[in-house]
Specification:
Structural class of chain A: alpha/beta
Helix content of chain A: 25-40%
Distance between the termini of chain A: 35 Å
Number of helices of chain A: 12
Helix content of chain B: 25-40%
Oligomer: heterodimer
Strand content of chain B: 15-25%
Number of helices of chain B: 11
Order of helices and strands of chain A: EEEHEEHEHHHHHEHEHEEHHHEEEE
Largest interface: A-B, 49 and 48 residues
Strand order of the largest sheet of chain A: 6-7-8-3-9-10-12-11
Largest sheet of chain A: 8 strands, mixed
Chain lengths: 329, 327
């Protein structure tokens, strides 16, 4: 397989009046052609900012360093007009709130065809036909009539479909979806996830799914990367992360969610404490204050993300967990 | 559940007048339209529903924070529907509320201690300063806050800690009932379990009854003894948590269950989803007959004509369902 996206030592810093905030700290990863990778983390873990940096969409006080290569081309520092040929066409992103990502005073048709005319050099007419086709593909009923409506005439679920249609209309090779279903109702979320799954099955598109919801990742992704305090703490296949997580944080996350497929448990296994302040990260492991298995080494030395099996990596000083779930040093 | 319910809600309706102009008549948005349920001492009743289902409105109407349009809200046997603020004052110390957004529901200019003590100042004015402080620190400890944080302000706390402050404020008068409206929805995943466990602990220690309102069926099922499923202002189904999970009878409950993503790849891959078409209809203009029929996979002609009543026949004990064709 060939990497479509290759990220090396990517860091993101924000300058704030209270001093610099390190949102992302030297992350490395590759996204292969056709795979769907889940990025799981809490707010402030750096999961969104990593990909805002990839897309060149950081806020003006943010600065990305390191390397982001899309099919071999370095994106960091690339001229905006050159970058615009890639993002919005070969690499697109959808966001949590479709209303803030659609232009309210432009008809859907205009917003969908603009990219085609601009990036693909299509005629207005061809672009319109293609846009209509796309609305059909994302299952917007009565697409012909709706094509010339404004964003406010669509419901939340339908708007998210329009967003997906916009992101896919140029047939991108990589789709970055940042919490695409979080703002939606459960039954509508199920529709959108089903749609994403279908669209993915139809082509070779790679998908990055950024979410705090492990349930969303479980059905859709092949691989999962768990983020904590600006770094990846564990990587693995979706089955490995859910069934035999090896980092205490991933283990805690998986155990702390109430599940509908299991009989009633008396208590949830909560992770104590709260995520660390990114301005005052401890020396040593960033998870140490919340970890039930902490020992001297964790306090002195920050663990690196190290591969421990094919396709798997974790940043933890423990050797692992045995079959009974006991930590092994 | 045995004995008399502490709260008994009968045919509760909350309609909001909307629009109306020179030539346009005012219309009614039926946020809650004929909802009945009981809450017993020490139990948790879960209310689950999507946006626009009326779940938050029910919580507020029970506490008379919104005046019900019709129906009966009996608190300890006495009807309090339509009570004024003054009339409610006596009951307020027994019925409290916890909100979704902890930071927005706390006064940023007050210290944690003063926020938590506010109900005390209202209902037990003239309390000796020392006693007041001791009571506040006691409840802070009980909800997992360090008592030495008493003089800090809300912005100095995390979201989870602020929610603990909100819970401490609700608990300090030892109420009999707390309405918890999406208390964990705005919190991070790793913090949610802490707050859910805290509410369960407080219930075990004090016997407080909870109305737990959420859109998240997995969370509701976990915390609740009984669960009320709401759609467009009406009750679709009411059952104990286990029955709802294993033998749901209403097609909407079944769809909700199948739509909730389970954090297990094997389960998710094998799952057959019941996908509902479209979005929720507008509560301004609800469908005739059964409000769910426009999205229902088994709807028939009868469903458009007749409103299904709540029926317990054919279900598990305590299970009631509003459907012409329940499973």
């Amino acid at each position: 397989m060939s990497s479509i996206l290759s990220v090396k030592d990517l860091s993101v810093r924000f300058a704030t009046p209270e001093g610099a905030v390190a949102a992302v700290n030297g992350v490395n990863f590759e996204i292969e052609k056709g795979e769907c990778v889940g990025i799981v983390g809490e707010s402030g873990s750096g999961k969104s900012q990593t990909f805002m940096a990839v897309m060149g969409l950081l806020a003006s006080n943010g600065k990305a360093t390191g390397s982001v290569k899309f099919k071999g081309d370095e994106l960091l520092g690339m001229k905006t007009d050159k970058l615009n040929k890639i993002r919005g066409s070969k690499m697109t992103m959808i966001f949590q709130d479709p209303m803030t990502s659609l232009t309210p005073h432009l008809r859907i048709s205009r917003q969908l065809t603009e990219v085609l005319v601009l990036h693909k050099g299509m005629s207005e007419r061809d672009a319109r036909a293609r846009a209509l086709q796309m609305l059909d593909r994302v299952k917007i009923p009565d697409a012909k009539r709706r094509l010339d409506q404004f964003p406010h005439e669509f419901s939340g679920g339908m708007r998210q479909r329009v967003m997906i249609a916009m992101a896919l209309v140029c047939e991108p090779e990589l789709l970055i979806a940042d919490e695409p279903s979080t703002a939606l109702d459960v039954t509508v979320q199920a529709q959108i996830l089903e749609l994403l799954q279908e669209l993915r099955a139809q082509g070779n598109m790679s998908v990055i799914m950024i979410t705090h919801d492990l349930g969303v990742v479980a059905g859709l992704c092949n691989r999962v990367m768990v983020m904590y305090a600006g770094e990846f703490c564990e990587k693995g296949s979706v089955d490995e992360i859910f069934h035999e997580p090896q980092h205490p944080y991933s283990r805690g996350l998986v155990a702390s969610i109430p599940r509908l497929d299991r009989p009633e448990e008396d208590r949830l296994t909560a992770i104590p404490g709260q995520p660390p302040n990114l301005q005052q990260l401890p020396t040593g492991c960033t998870f140490q204050e919340r970890c039930g298995h902490v020992f001297d080494r964790c306090i002195i030395e920050r663990p690196k993300l190290v591969a421990f099996a094919p396709g798997r990596a974790k940043s933890c000083h423990l050797k692992g967990f045995d079959a009974n779930g006991e930590a092994v040093r | 559940m045995s004995g008399e319910p502490i709260l008994s809600v009968k045919d509760l309706k909350v309609h909001f007048p909307v629009g109306g102009g020179l030539f346009k008549p005012k219309r009614a948005l039926k946020a809650v339209d004929g909802v009945s349920f009981d809450v017993f001492a020490g139990e948790t009743l879960g209310i689950v529903g999507e946006s626009g289902s009326g779940k938050s409105t029910i919580g507020r109407a029970v506490l008379q924070l919104i005046k019900p349009t019709a129906g009966r809200v009996a608190w300890l046997g006495k009807n309090i529907a339509g009570h004024s603020r003054a009339q409610m004052k006596g009951h307020r110390r027994e019925m409290q509320i916890v909100f979704q957004d902890p930071l927005a529901s706390l006064n940023p200019r007050m210290t944690a201690g003063d926020i938590i003590a506010e109900p005390l100042d209202t209902f037990e004015p003239g309390l000796a300063k020392e006693v007041r402080k001791r009571r506040v620190q006691e409840i802070m400890r009980q909800v997992g806050l360090l008592p030495e944080m008493i003089n800090r302000y809300p912005h100095e706390f995390s979201g989870g800690q602020n929610q603990r402050i909100g819970i401490a404020r609700a608990m300090i008068l030892r109420p009999k009932l707390i309405v918890a409206d999406e208390p964990v929805s705005s919190l991070d995943v790793s913090i949610r379990a802490q707050i859910i466990n805290l509410l369960a602990d407080l219930q075990r220690e004090t016997g407080v009854a909870l109305i737990f309102i959420s859109h998240d069926l997995a969370v509701v099922r976990h915390v609740s003894h009984r669960v009320l499923v709401l759609y467009l202002g009406k009750v679709m189904e009411l059952a104990d948590g286990q029955t709802l999970l294993t033998k749901p009878r209403h097609p909407y409950t079944q769809a909700l269950l199948s739509a909730a993503p389970v954090p297990d790849p094997a389960v998710e891959r094998a799952k057959k989803r019941i996908l509902l078409e479209g979005d929720l209809p507008s509560p301004m203009n609800p469908p005739s007959g059964c409000v769910f029929r426009t999205r229902c996979p088994i709807a028939q002609a009868k469903c458009a004509r007749e409103v299904p009543g709540l029926d317990s026949r054919g279900g598990a004990p305590g299970q009631i369902v509003a459907c012409h064709f329940p499973s």
